[in-house]
Structures are given as C-alpha cells and as structure tokens.
Amino acid sequence: MNSNLHPSKEIVETDPKFLEFRQQLLQEADRLIFLAIDNYARGMEALRASSSTWSFVSFYYASMYAAKAILALHGCWFQGNGSWLQAENLNQGSQSFKYYNTRPNMYTRIHSVSASGSHQIFWSAYYAAAGRLAIYYEPQHTKAVRPNAGDEHWQIRVRNDLNYHPISAFRLIDDFSRRFAASPTPMNLPSELATIIEMVEAMLDLLKFNVSDFNFGTQIYIPSSFFGVRDRSLQQLGVQHPALTAHVGGRLPGYCF
What we know:
- By secondary structure, this protein is an alpha+beta fold.
- The protein has one domain.
- It is built from 10 helices and 4 strands; from the N terminus they run βααβββαααααααα.
- The protein has a 4-stranded antiparallel β-sheet.
- It is globular, with a radius of gyration of 21 Å.
- The N terminus is likely disordered.
C-alpha cells in the first residue's frame, strides 16, 4: 500500500457509522440516478442541429452521474484526486471499509488539479472498478462498464473539443444537418453523438437492472403525491409537459428571424 495513505479507523458493519454511511450513499445514488435520467432527457430534447453540441454535453453529464450512481450502488465512492473508500471485508455480517486520503490539505487539492484533470481521474477510477463487474452483467451492459475503443477519456476530450473550440462545434452542426436530413433516424447521427447515446443508454439500462435486482429504493426527492412510485415520479419530474412543448412549438417559429 502507498506509504502516503492515511487510513481512518476501520468502520465495521455493526458500527452505527456504517449504517449511516450506507443510508447516505444509497440516497446519493438515488439522487444521481435522477440527475442521469434528467440530463439524458435534456440531451434528447436539444437533439437538433443548432444545439447538437449542447446535447453532447448533456449526455456527457448523464454518463458521469450514471457512472457515479453505479459505483454508489455497489458501496463505492471516489472523491477528488486522492481520497476514496476501500472495502476491507466483504463477508456479510462483518463487512467493513476504510477511508483513504493521499491529499496533504484542501489547498493543494484545489490548486493542483483542474476540473478536466479531476474528470480524467474519475473516469480512470470508474473503469478500473466497473470493469470488474462486467462478468456479472448481460452483454448489453458492456458499453456501460468498458471505455469506448479502450479510451477511458474519450468523452472528456470530445466534450472539451465541442465546448471550447467553435470550429469543432460547427463541424458537428454541419455533420448533423447533412446526415439527419438525408435519413432522419437515430442511427444516422454523427458518430460522436451516436456513441455517447449508446453509452448513456447502456448505463441507464444497467442502473435499471441494479435497481430491480437490489429491490432498491430510498425516500430521496419523491413528491408526496407519488410517494413510493418511482417510475411515475421520475416521469413527472423529468419529462416535459405537453403544454410546454406546445408553447415552444407555437412561439419558436416567430423568433426565427
């Protein structure tokens, strides 16, 4: 083990702190699932030539929230560039974990790792952990736990390229316009969009599989009128109301001047 690690006291299953951690981590997983679904929905709503770059950004964050939720559902958590939770005992009834931290202080963390860098670290950690789960899942879940073409940071590079380089953004807009006009089907999207949509949908399918398999449910952000009914709650919160869709459809043509 790295000599710079500073482990906390081992937390065992019978410790109240273990139960508190488990409850909070599962609630965080539920929140992340909602955010993943919401960003997927927003990306789909924006899926047109003019906002195709923003669709990719939305899908990117959908994938990140989904990846964090997948880890959380398996008792894993990763924070920043030098702290994580590590299971010490996996035997039911005597499970335990430790918190490890390689960071000397918060100032160093803030000033030594950029936002992009922290995302790279997260995705490397995610694929290292999630790859071990691949043998337990169905083939359709492979894209959820394996990086695209073996590249752990593909989605970060594409997101940054589209977000910060106008020429790349306009190329995607042009590619979207030409491809989709010729054949308006999801299979005919630019490769960047098609790939990340497949990735996100595989992650959401995997989360759905886990939620069902684990009989998972928490009380995080469920409206009182739909308490205990996950699918209706998520639809109510994440799907745009037809009245708003109709409003946009009626007003937008007048603003295209």
